[in-house]
Amino acid sequence: PKAAQGTGRTADIECRLVVLGSGPGGYTAAFRAADIGLETVMIERYASLGGVCLNVGCIPSKALLHAAALIEEASHSAEIGVEFGPPKIDLDKLRAFKDTKVVGQFTKGLAGMAKQRKVRTVQGVAKFVSPNELEIAGSDGKTQLLRFEQCIIAAGSQAVKLPNFPWDDPRVMDSTDALQLAEVPKKLLVVGGGIIGLEMATVYRALGAEVTVVEFMDQLMPGADKDLVKPLADRLKKQGVIVHLKTKAAKVEASKKGITVSFESATEGQKPELESGTWDRVLVAVGRSPNGGKLDAAKAGVQVSERGFIPVDRQMRTNVPHIFAIGDLVGQPMLAHKATHEGKLAAEVAAGEKKEWVARVIPSVAYTDPEIAWVGVTETEAKAKGLKIGVGKFPWVASARAVGIGRGEGFTKLIFDEHTHRIIGAGIAGVHAGDLISELALAIEMGAEAGDIGATIHPHPTLGETVAMAAEVYDGTITDLYIPKKK
Description:
Layout: E1 13-20, H1 24-36, E2 40-44, H2 51-56, H3 58-76, H4 91-116, E3 120-123, E4 125-130, E5 133-137, E6 143-153, E7 157-159, E8 172-173, H5 175-180, E9 187-191, H6 195-207, E10 210-214, H7 226-238, E11 242-244, E12 247-255, E13 258-265, E14 277-279, E15 281-284, E16 288-290, E17 323-325, H8 336-350, E18 364-366, E19 372-376, H9 379-385, E20 389-395, H10 400-404, E21 411-417, E22 423-429, H11 433-445, H12 450-454, H13 465-475
Parallel strand pairs: 1-2, 1-6, 2-3, 6-17, 8-15, 9-10, 9-15, 10-11
Antiparallel strand pairs: 4-5, 5-6, 7-16, 12-13, 13-14, 18-19, 19-22, 20-21, 21-22
Helix pairs in contact: 1-8, 3-4, 3-6
């Protein structure tokens, strides 16, 4: 490899392509590059591959949510004539299931695939020292100089730590700490009513904690339509989860008794609904910040915004043509499935393929109970933009499958462009919503019309057929509901 500019030092490692980070985007980029034939090195700061998502994010949280779902189902099974005793929760076994059977299996799998593909992995913290060189500091204090022809930055993001919280106290947790499952507190305060906060609230409530959630905005899960969030909000209320909206955690103090928090109203001049109180543990889940500002990217000439994002073009190139960036640190949404597609694209462009990032939509899923999933234009967004839309909404109380499993609280909603009758958005609230949303993402990508969806024969009885039924509601051909015709 020839460095355009360099330090003049002897390189310890040289390669065609280096990938900075081994999360879903990073390992996808590295593996795809290797499959194409590029000599590839992947740098990871932690001992295990997989990044936040696999080790302390998406994957372990789903393992714990599975346990929560089992507890919840067992608690309601008596209603249908199948009675179990109270659950006996073995935290050590649950933790071991998460760490060994789930996370461990996949980290070993990634290490194995890296070896099969001849992708060299280097553990350490990497920073740029020139446009073609990285310095990697290992945990043993030693450093290595890596010289590359091309680089893909996939360094991800980290949980936002609010400055007014005593972070040196282990009772104050971010999402990573919460997933360690050190204990089940008697009382847990969750600061932030977004996807991560509500998923963790679901887990800890099922395990026996008294959970309170405070959210600064006027609804849970800001970004989703309010009607989509309502079935979840109603279920949380029935389960005893206390939710306060338009509420800000202001003063926070640690003592032997616990973490005492006082609150302010998000509306100026109003008193907060929630008075100050003391909790055994507090989880702060108010979002994630990109790691772009931690790489000394300026030494490579790479532009980084004040917030830590790295601007890229439709080929994932930064302003420095031989350096690419993908995943959380190139912008919202910060989702693993977005990063994997970007990683594959960046690798292919680095190998000389002429491609661009052209995805129309990226689905979002909250793995709460019920799940909430949406893709494309939301109703709120459509109204704000003045789009002329039509909505087809099918309530799951009319779904034989949903009622048969005792989960008729959900619904499927499709949003159509009134001019073309093409689907432009969708939302599902209900069990397995995350599995169902993919059909609608594909429908939007393919430019499907209401008739295409409604006339596609879906198996009965399934939750999936509610997608077709929602399309039939829109075009007025539904027979599973009676909707009076407008005069």
